Amino acid sequence: MKTGKLQKIFITHLMTLISVPLSAASIDAVIATGSGIAATSTGQIELSITKGDAVAISGISGTGGITITGQNAGSDKTGFIEVCTYVTTATYQLEINSFNTVTSEFDASDGLGNLIPFSVLWDDGTNAWTFSNNTGVAQTGNTTTISTSDPVCAGGTNTTITVTVRNSDFNKVPRGNYSDTLAIIIAAQ
């Protein structure tokens, strides 16, 4: 066989291969359940959403805090703030700590060494706890009346935080401005 005839046969076969119309074959890109290919396919995806425990105290920022004023008088002094407490569990734990750690009590300081002891009452409508020392003892309560669905209580409040200064402690300190910062720690249980 001569080289020219071989080239002609090769080119003829190549042209035949190239001239096969692509429409003669079809390719389906289908994902089927199981091991087969079908015109339609269904599948299932397992979805798992986990929401962890969540808590929030809102409505504290921008309130100006708690202010107690007065002169010597015959009754205890109180001030309060109303906030929204949100917990996603049936129980929660609460701890209140003072930034002034001069004594184990909650103390407001004038910066000159004079201290006014005070207590803090947390009342969420179901649980009412009085904290009078700075020992970090946590209280545990249920969430019967606090929000378990809205972290901002639809703009309202459900918890009152009240600070009380006993009259006898108020009367024995010199005049001045006394302050403290409280850290309120709430945790889902």
Overview of the molecule:
- With 189 residues, the protein is mainly beta.
- It has a single domain (55-188), classed as CFA/I fimbrial subunit E, pilin domain (Immunoglobulin-like, Sandwich), CATH 2.60.40.2040.
- 11% of the residues lie in helices and 31% in strands.
- The protein has two helices and nine strands; from the N terminus they run αββββββββαβ.
- It has helices at residues 3-18, 167-171, and strands at residues 55-58, 77-87, 91-98, 106-109, 115-123, 128-131, 139-142, 159-165, 182-188.
- Strands 1, 2, 4, 5, 6 and 8 form a six-stranded antiparallel β-sheet that branches. Strands 7-3-9 form a three-stranded antiparallel β-sheet, with no helix packed on it.
- A hairpin with a 5-residue loop joins β4 (106-109) and β5.
- The N and C termini lie far apart (92 Å).
- Residues 3-32 have low confidence and may be disordered.
Summarize this structure briefly.
With 189 residues, the chain is mainly beta. The chain contains two helices and nine strands; from the N terminus they run αββββββββαβ. 11% of the residues lie in helices and 31% in strands.
Describe this protein with a few key phrases.
single chain; 189 residues; mainly beta; Immunoglobulin-like; 3-stranded antiparallel β-sheet; 9 strands; disordered N terminus
Gyration radius, rounded: 37 Å
Distance N terminus to C terminus? 92 Å
In CATH terms, the superfamily is: CFA/I fimbrial subunit E, pilin domain
CATH class: Mainly Beta
Number of separate strands = 9
Low-confidence segments, ≥5 residues, pLDDT <50? 3-32
Helix content estimate: 10-25%
Would you tell me which CATH topology applies?
Answer: Immunoglobulin-like
- Tell me the series of helices and strands, N- to C-terminal: HEEEEEEEEHE
How would you describe the shape? Answer: elongated
CATH architecture grouping: Sandwich
Oligomeric state of the chains in view: single chain
Number of domains: 1
For the sheet with most strands, the description reads: 6 strands, antiparallel
Mean pLDDT: 76
